[in-house]
Amino acid sequence: MKMNEEAMVSEVVEAVKSGAATSRAEIAAGLGFSGPTASRLIGLAIRSKRLKLAGRDRFNSPTYEVVQGQPSAACHELAGACI
After folding, report:
1. Residue 57 near residue 63 (C-beta atoms within 8 A)
2. Structure confidence by residue, pLDDT tens digits, 56-76
3. I want to staple 21 with a disulfide (CB 3.0 to 4.6 A). Which of 17, 27, 51, 53 is the partner?
4. Residue 62, SS3 per DSSP
5. pLDDT digits (tens, 9 = 90+) for 11-39
């Protein structure tokens, strides 16, 4: 992974961790990436074990959560659980 890609993946992971975004569309819109770029960065984050699939939202789009550390509040709302 290139250094610039690593920084962008870190931005994606931070957005998910903070609860600002959990789906590809939210990540793309929130961070100013195109849909394909957001998908590629999410894939890199999943392959590097930083994100994982959390479930699906009301539009049946996949949602993501952080593998290590505290998952985002939005993911817990989706799952109907609280820590």
Report:
1. yes
2. 988 898 999 999 654 444 544
3. 27
4. strand
5. 999 999 999 999 999 999 999 999 999 99
φ, ψ for residue 65 (rounded to 5)? -140, 160
3, 17, 25, 63 from 69: Cα distances, Å: 23, 8, 23, 17
3-state secondary structure of 34: coil
Q: How many residues does the chain have?
A: 83
Strands, E, within 1-83: which ranges?
A: 51-56, 62-66
- The C-alpha atoms of residue 55 and residue 64 are separated, in whole angstroms, by 7
* 3 state DSSP class of 52: strand
**How far apart are the C-alpha atoms of 81 and 37, rounded to whole Å?**
31
